[in-house]
Specification:
Radius of gyration: 20 Å
CATH class of the largest domain: Alpha Beta
Strand content: 15-25%
Oligomer: single chain
Number of helices: 15
CATH topology of the largest domain: Rossmann fold
CATH architecture of the largest domain: 3-Layer(aba) Sandwich
Mean pLDDT: 92
Length: 371
């Protein structure tokens, strides 16, 4: 049996690693799976762990309010390295672009343990956008031994940086595996969030924003755009906004939107409920990366509240549009989709470039072959 050490710390990482862990455990005679979480997203992470019934072997519980990124990096690196020194796995698996993923890969490198990198090769080619995720990706790519790229473009990005093509494998994105499994499990009944039933009789926008890049003025612009969209619409348009737990987000959102009729500010919801919210929404406005990958499978147009995206495949496919964070731009682009059925259908019917729901199966077979 080969010991596989899986490390993650945030809700998106957990969602995308859950199907990989499940696939590894289907092959229990060949893999011994050890799971370590850092707690970089505490409450939101725990929701996903519970939903996917992930057995956690180590919980570092590192997150503290308003701590510097450097503190997360140092603490995660030190604690993960100590665990690796005891466990001595055959391979360490990391996912995405978080500080947890970078620290996990660096700790493995220091112990001379191979690293498998799930969702490798995403790039904006701007080291400060998104911050610090873009640099995390670049550094991870040069620490990893196996690269599981979601698309051919991701593979090309890695080759452009000099990564050996023989170590890069296009697998699709595991988020589609998780989404399809969850939508299949979870019915389309009415949404209940925070103990409150949310009526879905009208068209609604689903909104998320949590990235550091949007703290301050950009987030204020987003909120002002939502307020004006609601106040100037006469069709009963509503907004559902699960508000991230970060105080830099909550303070601005509740101050500007807390008393706006038609705007539902709710607590972060469990992953299956969020899938349901996506499935029933009309348009999604977000700065999230994972939602850009998920929503096309549900036929939902996505407007990206950022200046750039590391997921250009969805933009090229037509399911995603990058609109930035200027208030007038957000209002204009949202109204186009609300008012022009042909433009709405063009985005809603675009193909999803991120896979067929079998990425985890491919990844596990590649790990087995490598080991």
């Amino acid at each position: 049996m080969k010991k596989t050490f899986v490390v993650f710390g945030t809700r998106p990482e957990a969602i995308k690693m859950a199907p990989v862990i499940e696939e590894l455990k289907k092959n229990a005679g060949r893999f011994d799976v050890v799971v370590c979480v850092t707690g970089q997203h505490r409450e939101m992470l725990d929701q996903v762990i519970d939903w996917f019934s992930i057995d956690v072997d180590y919980d570092l519980d590192l997150m503290k309010e308003n701590q510097f990124v450097s503190a997360i990096t140092v603490n995660a690196l030190q604690k993960i390295e100590e665990i690796l020194d005891v466990e001595r796995p055959d391979i360490v698996l990391v996912q995405g672009d978080t500080t947890t993923a970078f620290a996990g890969a660096l700790a493995a490198y220091y112990q001379k343990i191979p690293v498998g990198y799930v969702e490798s090769g995403l790039r904006t080619w701007n080291k400060y956008d998104p911050f610090p995720e873009e640099i995390n990706r670049v550094l991870l790519s040069h620490l990893a031994d196996l690269h599981f790229a979601p698309t051919e473009l991701s593979k090309a990005n890695l080759e452009r940086e000099g990564i050996d093509s023989g170590r890069i494998f296009v697998t699709g994105n595991t988020v589609i595996d998780a989404l399809l499994e969850t939508v299949d499990k979870h019915g389309r009944e009415a949404i209940v969030a925070g103990g409150n039933r949310i009526r879905l009789d009208n068209r609604y926008l689903l909104v998320t924003s949590h990235r550091r890049d949007n703290f301050g003025a950009p987030l204020k612009n987003i909120c002002l755009a939502l307020k004006r969209l609601i106040e100037t619409d006469d069709s009963g348009l509503e907004v559902i906004f699960p508000v991230h737990s970060n105080p830099n987000v909550r303070r601005v959102v509740f101050d500007l939107l807390g008393d706006v009729k038609g705007v539902h500010l709710i607590e972060p919801v469990e992953y299956p409920t969020f899938c349901d919210l996506m499935a029933k929404s009309d348009i999604i406005l977000t700065d999230s990366g994972g939602i850009q990958e998920e929503a096309p499978s549900l036929g939902k147009p996505v407007l990206v509240l950022r200046e750039a995206t590391e997921r250009p495949e969805a933009v090229e496919a037509g399911s995603v549009k990058v609109i930035g964070t200027r208030t007038e731009d957000i209002i204009r682009e949202t109204r186009i989709l609300l008012d022009d059925p042909s433009e709405y259908q063009r985005m809603a019917q675009a193909r999803n470039p991120y896979g067929d729901g079998r990425a985890s199966e491919r990844i596990v077979k590649l790990i087995e072959a490598y080991l």
